[in-house]
Design brief:
The complex is a heterotrimer of chains A (817), B (210) and C (104). Chain A is an all-alpha fold. Chain A is 66% helix and 2% strand. In chain A, a hairpin with a 6-residue loop joins strand 1 and strand 2. In chain A, helix 4 runs parallel beside helix 6, helix 5 runs antiparallel to helix 6 and helix 22 runs antiparallel to helix 25. The longest helix of chain A has 35 residues. The radius of gyration of chain A is 27 Å and the shape is globular. In chain A, 63% of the residues are buried. Chain B folds into 2 domains: 80 residues; 110 residues, Cupredoxins -  blue copper proteins (Immunoglobulin-like), CATH 2.60.40.420. A 5-stranded mixed beta sheet of chain B has the order 3-2-1-5-8, with no helix packed on it. A 5-stranded mixed beta sheet of chain B has the order 4-10-9-6-7. In chain B, a hairpin with a 7-residue loop joins strand 6 and strand 7. Chain B is elongated, with a radius of gyration of 23 Å. With 104 residues, chain C is mostly helical. Chain C has a two-stranded antiparallel ribbon with strand order 1-2. In chain C, helix 1 packs parallel to helix 3 and helix 2 runs antiparallel to helix 3. The termini of chain C are far apart. Classes of the chains: A mainly alpha (817), B alpha+beta (210), C mainly alpha (104). Chains A and B meet through helix 4, helix 10, helix 11, helix 12 and helix 13 of A and helix 1 and helix 2 of B.
Chain lengths: 817, 210, 104
């Protein structure tokens, strides 16, 4: 009876409102997870159709199915969609849906941010699809190498569509990364120490960390290329001191970690599903955690292996070749840990296991060709041929799609609460596996016979004809397999019979709830004492539903969940999460206005949208917090009392700021890397016309930074504001008076961009300081509620630090002139 | 190796016609052999794990993780890395006495080759057989990539970054080359021909230049 | 957080060492250090070897410190293990310094 009452009360607090209004305002992680997964599957289908068109074109020599202009759009969009609109959103969706449930929490750390990410994904993806339907899709390859993607050789908006659309979607990736990292570290069930965490959470923690460091270089590269296209700042133009190689470095600095960013969540799913299928425990939990961490780092030392043929000295290639071979070792540790788990258990060949076998076959082959491509002289032959096409599909389909199919069948009963209808999944498996290998296994040979990538037709007599025909046949088999999979899932959703909970006998917490999941996940939060809490206590679902765990109550209409100590999992405070809101969709739409006005070339209009975004951000932040102290409140069994987030330290808001600034700092570091790279590598550096000496600006910036840093610590907000203002003035003066015109040389363009970065952050700090003053007067800061000044201090310090670095980097060359 | 039939072809990496391409082809066959062995091992272990019934004979965790996961690949990969660095070092354009240097300039969609005497030929590269030829490769518009699969690996032609590639043709003959880096709508037709002359033919060409 | 930083310290160290070697190599090639000879080898290679050896030594010191201060928990054991992984990665990563001409 108590369970039912609790269910009603919590549902009233946590539910998504009915109707369209509710859908537009929802911030619930289960909703967002489902949406991301469905959206990603839609884009997978679109990308798959493009792939079919590519294979239709290549089936025979001299094909006249589509011309090169359309073909170039086809392969560019196929790659871009599969990477940015399918793979990343798919695992984000899975993680958003599963993580809080696996960690025994009620939602993610920033529900509105998940919703913002979703709408950015929808709007950004729509830009790309609309451009494709209008026939102006990007056509410079998914890697968008300048100068080909530059204004001279792509005068239309094709490249702008990619740069703006993908960057828009990446906002959602960055939101998800920060959210996932903080949620894993802070919002877990009491007692869930880090070393008791489900392996999937470890994999996602590594993935999120990699995204925080991996995406900023690409975002920076995209901004620079868009600025070059729109305003003529020559970052990549060799005739004005830029270098096309800078783009390649920035792109692959993202692009290689990206492969592992896609692989790790899938490997996390494997590590979760496989032991359950083998009815045993995973072998080598600690070894797997270590391997995942090693992968996450080492994969940042590989990016140049996409650039082995760009003429970089062989010794430097050797560094990357060595790292590229090393990265295979943690992968091998995982593969053998999984094999050992199967060996020790009693594996059942249920459907998810069948797909895992497909994963093993395809992924291991892809890994082996990956080691081959790490070998510089071999790569010089295989690079940019069909061999690489084959390799990357083995890795991505083997390392991502097969595990995701296994995950789909494994967790589908959780999403639907229903069982399977017909045995279509087995037929789909064989079609996909056979079709895939027919398509791509032969492609290794096609590549070694010299067929380059991205050609729309080919002559006879090269030995490629029969190989291409078989590849095309195979690809259609595979497409039928995926269609069958989609039908199977649809049947289960609509016709499947209601199913008992936890059909696989798993031990993780996501199965300790009703399925489909209630909006609040758990009526009360579990106390975790081992790695398989549900196995340790089979009655856990009933206990939690009765409200006999932590936070088993409804109060003040608050969405409460537990925040714990990062490492020990000891209860720390009560996080109060925001409720349904219009803010995510309006903010995303306003950002969309910015991107569309950039795309349309309405440059004066674009900043207005940014001002609107800042205003929405103000409202967003304003709606957090409390106007009075509540003191410690009852939280757990046995009368345990905990403070709410607003009255404590180390909140999710603080950690989110730390990670956001880490990402921004990475972007700044990438920019400085670009500056140093151009200085050493690009032709005509340094240019004859260096910056004029700028002692005044240098002193002003450093003094402003020092004043800001000191004042923000003493709570002297006007002085802190003045300090940040001084930094802005110094940077504006550097651009306006001292640096040569940014369009004249890459030196001036990079210098101005460094200054612009600081202007952005200092202006942001100014807005935050003003916000803080308003919050203090409105009573949100006071008593125990001192979290917001701490957060503002982080942002202010970052702007001040960047200001000092930028002033030195920009001004010092003036003395060498 | 030509006995393998399917491996021959005008653009085949597996049908080398020069020492550099040959050393890479050998490297490929060695790696293929290793890959077959390793894949066989993994698949065999997977198959046995799925079907075996006697569950008492446990293999120690250490064997899986430290032995198979850590030690075995470390040994294999270190050996491969050493081999790779050795082969990679051997095909570098190190100074050699009888080197011929030729300028290569790629543009959409043609190749211009400038021989030591300053003569420019379009889409046909003349080289002496049996001598090291250093190509200084660049581009005037977008990025291209110079690739003659039967002679050597590829090298990108990047505006503003002249790159040096050493090629050697063992025998006189005709070799096909192509652009390997996507360069726009004419990418598929951005090919060229390499003519390797015997010593007499090359001397005659050089004389003709004067 | 301290625990997580300890856990990944060895890998962070590898990343720094990797960046230093790559950066030093690039600057050296651009500045022509391989043309000035010091003690029978080029200045370029000498500096790279010193940086490589320094990186290994620092990694060993770091890992020994991690081991000395380690508790009994799993995360600390992983920290020490990943410390050695970092050292090994620096050792292997620097092999090209002694086997390949610098700027070709």
């Amino acid at each position: 009876m108590k369970a039912l009452r609790l269910h009603r009360e919590l549902t009233a607090i946590w539910r998504t409102e009915p109707g369209l209004r509710g859908q537009l305002r929802s911030v619930n992680h289960s909703d967002m997870g489902r949406r991301f997964i469905l959206g990603a599957f839609f884009f997978f289908a679109v990308g798959g159709v493009l792939a079919m068109l590519i294979r239709a074109q290549l089936a025979t020599p001299h094909s006249a199915f589509v011309g090169p202009a359309v073909y170039n759009q086809l392969f560019t969009m196929h790659g871009s969609i599969m990477m940015f609109l399918f793979a990343i959103p798919m695992f984000e969706g899975l993680a958003m849906y599963l993580l809080p449930k696996m960690l025994g929490a009620r939602d993610l750390a920033y529900p509105r941010l998940s919703a913002l990410g979703w709408w950015c994904y929808v709007f950004g993806g729509s830009i790309l699809i609309a451009a494709m339907l209008a026939g102006v899709a990007p056509d410079a390859g998914w890697f968008l190498y300048p100068p080909l993607s530059g204004k001279t050789y792509t005068p239309g908006i094709n490249s702008d569509v990619w740069l703006l659309g993908v960057t828009f979607v990446e906002i959602s990736a960055m939101c998800a990364a920060i959210e996932i990292a903080v949620s894993i570290l802070k919002l877990r069930a009491p007692g869930m120490r880090l070393d008791r965490m489900p392996l999937f959470a470890w994999y996602m923690l590594a993935t999120a960390g990699m995204m925080i460091f991996g995406f900023p270089p690409l975002i920076l590269g995209s901004i620079l290329l868009e600025v070059e296209r729109a305003f003529g700042w020559p970052f990549y133009a060799p005739e004005l001191g830029g270098s096309p190689l800078l783009w390649q470095h920035l792109f692959w600095l993202f692009g290689h970690p990206e492969v592992y960013i896609i692989f790790l969540p899938a490997a996390g799913a494997v590590s979760t599903i496989l032991p359950v299928m083998a009815r045993t425990k995973i072998l080598g939990y600690g070894a797997l955690v270590a391997a995942v961490m090693a992968l996450a780092f080492l994969s940042f030392g590989l990016w140049v292996h996409h650039m082995f043929t760009t003429g970089i000295p062989h010794m430097a290639l050797g560094f990357f070749s060595a790292a590229s071979t090393l990265v295979a070792i943690p992968t091998a540790v995982q593969v053998f840990a999984w094999l050992g788990t199967l060996w020790a258990g009693r594996p059942q060949l249920k459907l998810p296991m069948l797909y895992l076998i497909g994963f093993f076959i395809v992924f291991v082959l892809g890994g082996l060709t990956g080691v081959m491509l790490a070998v510089v002289p071999f790569d010089a032959q295989a690079h940019d041929t069909a061999f690489v096409t084959a390799h990357l599909h083995y890795v991505l389909v083997g390392g991502f799609v097969f595990p995701m199919l296994a995950a789909a069948y494994y967790w589908l009963p959780h999403f639907t609460g229903r069982g399977r209808v017909m045995r279509l999944g087995e037929a789909a498996f064989w079609l996909i596996l056979i079709g895939f290998n027919l398509t791509f296994f032969l492609m290794h040979l096609t590549g070694l016979l010299g067929m380059p990538r991205r050609i729309d037709t080919y002559p006879e007599g090269m030995g490629w004809t029969w190989l291409n025909l078989l590849s095309s046949v195979g690809s259609f088999l595979m497409a039928f397999g995926f269609a069958l999979f989609a039908i199977d899932v649809a049947l289960q959703i609509w016709l499947g019979r209601l199913h008992k909970r936890n059909p696989w006998g798993a031990g993780t917490l996501e199965w300790a709830m009703a399925t489909p999941a209630p909006a609040y996940n758990f009526a009360s939060l579990a106390v975790v004492e081992g790695r398989d809490p549900l196995e340790d206590r089979p009655d856990l679902p009933a206990v939690l539903a009765r409200g006999d765990g932590w936070l088993g109550h409804a109060r003040h209409g608050w969405r409460e969940t537990m925040a714990v100590d990062m490492v020990s999992g000891a209860p720390d405070h009560i996080a109060i999460l925001p409720t349904n809101s219009w803010l995510p969709i309006t903010t995303a739409a306003t950002l969309g206005g910015f991107f569309l006005s950039m795309l349309a070339g309405l440059y004066p209009l674009a900043p207005l949208f940014l001002v609107l975004v800042a205003m929405l951000g103000w409202r967003w932040a304003w709606s957090n917090g409390q106007r009075r102290d509540f003191g410690p409140l009852p939280a757990g069994p046995g009368g345990a009392m905990l403070p709410i987030a607003a009255e404590t330290r180390g909140t999710t808001g603080w950690w989110g700021s730390v990670f956001a600034l880490t990402a921004s700092g990475t972007l700044f570091a990438s920019l400085l890397f670009g500056y140093a790279f151009l200085w050493t590598v690009a032709p005509d550096w340094p240019p004859p016309q260096l910056i004029a000496r700028a002692p005044f600006e240098l002193v002003l910036a450093i003094a402003g930074a020092v004043v800001a840093a000191v004042a923000v610590r003493r709570g002297q907000w006007p002085a802190a504001l003045a300090g940040q203002g001084a930094i802005v003035v110094a940077m504006v003066l550097l651009i306006a008076l001292r640096l040569p015109a940014p369009t004249s040389h890459a030196y001036a363009a990079t210098g101005a961009t460094v200054a612009a970065y600081v202007i952005f952050h200092a202006a942001l700090a100014v807005v935050m300081l003003a916000f803080l003053r308003a919050r203090i007067s409105a009573g949100f800061v006071g008593g125990q509620r001192q979290g917001e000044p701490r957060i503002v201090r982080l942002w202010s310090d970052h702007a001040a630090g960047a200001g000092i670095v930028a002033a030195l980097v920009i001004a010092l060359p003036g003395w060498f002139a | 190796m030509l006995a393998l039939g399917g491996c021959a072809g005008p653009l085949s990496v597996l049908d080398p016609a020069g020492p550099h391409a040959a050393s890479v082809a050998t490297l490929w066959w060695v790696m293929l052999g290793g890959a077959v062995l390793l894949a066989g091992l993994v698949f065999a272990l997977l198959a046995v794990a799925m079907v075996r019934r006697h569950r008492d004979d446990r293999v120690a965790d250490r064997t899986w993780i430290v032995g198979l996961g850590l030690a075995m690949p470390s040994v294999v990969l270190l050996a491969l890395l050493g081999y790779a660095l050795f082969v990679g070092g051997r095909i570098l354009p190190t100074p050699a006495p009888d080197t011929v240097t030729i300028g290569v300039e790629a543009r959409r969609y043609a190749w211009a080759f400038r021989d030591p005497a300053g003569r420019v030929s379009e889409n046909v590269l003349h080289i002496p057989a049996g001598r090291p030829v250093d190509l200084v490769i660049t581009a005037t518009d977008v990025i291209h990539s110079f690739w003659v699969p039967r002679l050597a690996g590829k090298m990108d032609a990047i505006p503003g970054h002249p790159n040096r590639l050493r090629i050697v043709a063992a025998r006189p003959g005709l070799y096909r080359g192509e652009c390997a880096e996507y360069c726009g709508t004419g990418h598929r037709d951005h090919g060229f021909t390499v003519i390797a002359h015997d010593a007499a033919g090359w001397t005659a060409r050089e004389r003709g230049a004067r | 957080m301290i625990q997580l930083l300890r856990m990944t310290a060895g890998l962070f160290h590898w990343a720094v060492a990797f960046g230093v070697l790559y950066g030093l190599h690039g600057i050296g090639c651009s500045a022509g250090w391989e043309r000035s000879m010091v003690a029978g080898t080029s200045l370029h290679r000498l500096l790279l070897v010193l940086a490589w050896a320094g990186g290994i030594a620092a990694g060993v010191a770091l890992t020994r410190w991690l081991r000395r201060t380690a508790g009994a928990g799993l995360l600390d054991r992983i920290a020490v293990l990943l410390g050695w992984v970092g050292v090994a990665a620096v050792v292997v990563g620097g092999l090209p310094i002694v086997t390949i001409p610098a700027c070709l």
